[in-house]
Specification:
Length: 206
């Protein structure tokens, strides 16, 4: 594949405590990350944005096409012991983190697997580093910390204890999120919510 390093993903260990997750540094090559950032949409507001805002020439679309492929799905299904055949997928982009973002949460119950691909280069800030948490109230009680940079991949299975969050950061913080959903209905609701959110932010910016 042009962008995804599936060999690294296949070799990565799935951690089981405090919940199922894996971290794959360098899932995207430095060249891919540079190309993505060269054509990434100018997102200057917080929240998630739908893919409809992307132009054809944006490299991130190539990454999404590869994530949509059967081989990536097969590896994730095998590593996490879930049946993803026929499950709908939802994608969204982030480009800006607000100081209020990163609060501890588990992800909604209509998400089966969460995939995050981090697109920043050489993250220097203390804030904005996602943490795999052991509980729902202490962001400093963590099993792993994931800097949001250099094509790192984070995948976790949503559970009632899949707590995660990060210390506050405000500014540019680029990532691609993908979820396998329980149903098309839940995917549609999230898509509508993200579309409305993006439209409001666009009007606000104008």
């Amino acid at each position: 594949m042009a962008h995804l390093n599936l060999d690294k993903l296949s070799a990565a260990k799935v951690e089981t405590s405090p919940y199922l997750y894996t971290v794959v540094p360098g899932f995207l090559s430095p060249d891919s990350v540079a190309k993505i950032n060269a054509t990434y949409p100018a997102i200057e507001k917080g929240g998630s944005f739908p893919l409809e805002m992307l132009d054809r020439n944006m490299t991130i679309k190539e990454v999404i096409d590869e994530l949509d492929g059967p081989e990536f799905e097969r590896i994730i299904a095998e590593k996490f012991g879930v049946d993803l055949d026929g499950r709908p997928k939802m994608y969204s982009l982030r480009g800006y983190t607000r100081a209020k973002d990163g609060q501890i949460h588990t992800d909604s119950k209509d998400k089966i697997i969460t995939v995050l691909v981090y697109l920043n280069q050489d993250w220097k800030q203390d804030g904005g580093r996602l943490r795999i948490l052991r509980n729902g109230h202490d962001v400093d009680d963590y099993a792993a910390e994931v800097p949001p940079d250099n094509g790192t991949l984070l995948v976790f299975k949503r559970a009632d204890n899949s707590w995660h969050g990060h210390h506050p950061f405000e500014g540019q913080r680029r990532s691609l999120q993908m979820n396998w959903m329980t149903s098309e209905g839940s995917k549609g609701w999230h898509k509508i919510r993200h579309t409305i959110s993006a439209a409001v932010k666009k009007l606000t910016a104008a």
